[in-house]
Amino acid sequence: MLLEVDNITLLYGRIQALHGITVHVNEGEIVALIGANGAGKTTTMRAVSGVRAIASGRIRFNGVDITRMRADLRVIQGICQSPEGRGVFPGMTVRENLEMGAYTRKDTGNIAKDMDHVLDLFPRLRERFKQAGGTLSGGEQQMLAVGRALMSRPKLLLLDEPSMGLAPMLIQQIFEIITEINQRDGTTILLVEQNAQQALSRAHRAYVLETGSIVKEGTGQELLHDPAVKDAYLGVA
Amino acid sequence: MNELINGFPVLTVTGLTQGAIYALVALGYTLVYGVLRLINFAHSDVFMIGTFGAIWTWSAFGFDANSPRPSVGGALGLIALAIVVAAILCGIFAMLVEVTAYRPLRARNAPPLAFLITAIGASFVLSEGMAAFTNRRQFGVPAMLPTDPLFSIGSWQVTPLQLTTIAVAILMMVALDWFVQRTKFGRGIRAVAQDANTAALMGVNKNRVILLVFLIGGLMAGVAAVLSDMKAASTRFNVGFLIGLKAFAAAVLGGIGNLRGAALGGILLGLAENYGSAVFGTNFRDFIGFLVLILLLMFRPTGLLGESLGRARA
User: Fold this and answer.
1) Which part of the chain is the ABC transporter domain (chain A) (predicted)?
2) Among A87, A35, A75, which Cα is nearest to A192's?
3) Closest CA relative to residue A131, chosen from A164, A98, A82
């Protein structure tokens, strides 16, 4: 097991956002967290990346207990997140944004090669290479955020709402790239998505969250055909 | 008005010299503001410690206010040495302020008002500490560089001190700009300034970046302190107050958080003061400087080059 999230709770002030979430991710998998707005998907992601401290429970990654580890040190362990809202550095060029993804890496010789690989995945970024991140379109920023996370050569890639705000054609494209990253490079992916249809059809396994708890889990295909899931999240009457 | 026209060359060179010193100090305010959105009021007193660092260095070599002027080569060596000592001293004190006054508050998620009060508190601790240590005395600065003009073109004259001040300031600013724009650590600073949470997700240690920013601001203030010592010819425990206030004003004038803005603001403030005092009399020197600030902010509230490290580039 690469990631083990064991019964975590999390508070925003007095409001309990997570009520004992247990999730695991095996090496090589794509795992999706789906659910409505405010269900706790992004909060779970933030607990894994370390930007929010949890109130109780444990998180283990690659055999190491990272429950109390700072976010920047988790990156060195091999976790990298593409945050909700993209988090592109607006005043940095595309190139500098990608270099920020490789900030913790010591093998400086391989960075140029990896950047080339990312630019092959996202040819649009090559065209915008010297442009400031803040001047990119929403779709380009999303590609930049995903590409930047890849630059850290993560063992576990966390993608928070990669399809948010994108045109349908771009959504399709970004999910194809996610699948490619997983299949060709063998990168393990934990994915948070509102677009349950796409997420479930791409994911090996998935969890359904409601008001801070997990209400269902299964393979992507099982959940895709589950009547209750269909009803609530897939927009099928 | 006649004085402005006749004295224009002298006023310009003096203004640039004074402005270069403001600019170096302003960089420290703007760097810290850029990453923490905090006005580090103790920065002026870090600068003050530098002015003493230079005097102690020179006195260790037997130079006090009454010593004869050393040879030009000797003077340049002593100035370089004083710059190194003052910069290191200021760098250390700036980091001490961060570690003792601000970091513990961040760890406890203190409200902004608490930071403001500790900033003012740290400022007083440093200046009153030095006051007690030096018995509130004024210290004269030994004569270093010759005061005769080094060269003159028409009615434009430049003294060795003015040339040294402007050259050193430009060198420091170019080096800082290179560091922030071109190196990995500089990218880390800009990342924290633009989006601290995402920077952490990229593996940037925020506290280390903040410490680095205080160190750089301190180094700049230390260099400025030596140059200011030679210009003012004396120093005292409260010497940081007015220069700090003006440097802060210069940072706001250029657009706080913006490095090139701080440099520009410093130079403009230095020039405005000198031109203004020629027209209205030297009593109006400080009046003019701040009047310019108020007028400019009325029309451009974000300062000349706009807010924030790097964001203004977009």
Assistant:
1) 3-236
2) A35
3) A98
Cβ A81–B313 below 8 Å, yes or no? no
Residue type, B99: V
Count CB-CB contacts under 10 A for residue B62: 9
Which of B109, B182, B201, B259 to probe by mutation at the A interface, max A CB count within 10 Å?
Answer: B201
Beta bridge partners of A10: A18
Q: Hey, what are B182's tokens?
A: 């071109």
Which candidate, A15, A11, A78, places its Cα nearest to that of A47? A11
Residue with tokens 């220069």: B243
Q: Does B203 touch chain A (CB under 8 A)?
A: yes
Query: B180: nearest CA in chain A?
Result: A92
SS3 content of chain B, % helix, strand, coil (to 5): 75, 5, 20
| Rounded mean pLDDT, A179-205 | 93
CA gap B308, B314 in Å, rounded = 11
Q: Over the stretch B158-204, which tens digit does the pLDDT of each residue have? A: 999 999 999 999 999 999 999 999 999 999 999 999 999 999 999 99
Q: Is A72 an 8 Å CB contact of chain B?
A: yes
A90 → chain B, closest CA residue: B311
Provide the residue type at A16 as one letter.
Answer: Q
Q: What is the mean pLDDT of residues B207-222?
A: 98
Instruction: Give the pLDDT confidence score for residue B38 in this predicted structure.
Output: 93
Structure tokens at B74: 């000797």
Q: What is the ipTM of this complex?
A: 0.90
A137 touches chain B (CB under 8 A): no
- Tell me the two tokens of residue B178: 């290179």
What are the tokens at B96? 């001490």
Tell me the fold of B2-134+157-299.
ABC transporter involved in vitamin B12 uptake, BtuC (1.10.3470)
Are A91 and A134 spatial neighbours (Cβ–Cβ below 8 Å)? yes
CA distance A161 to A159: 6
Question: Residue B307: which pLDDT band, with cuts at 50, 70 and 90?
Answer: low
Pair of tokens at residue B147: 């005061």
Strands (E), chain A: 3-12, 15-25, 30-35, 56-61, 64-65, 79-82, 156-160, 188-193, 205-210, 213-219
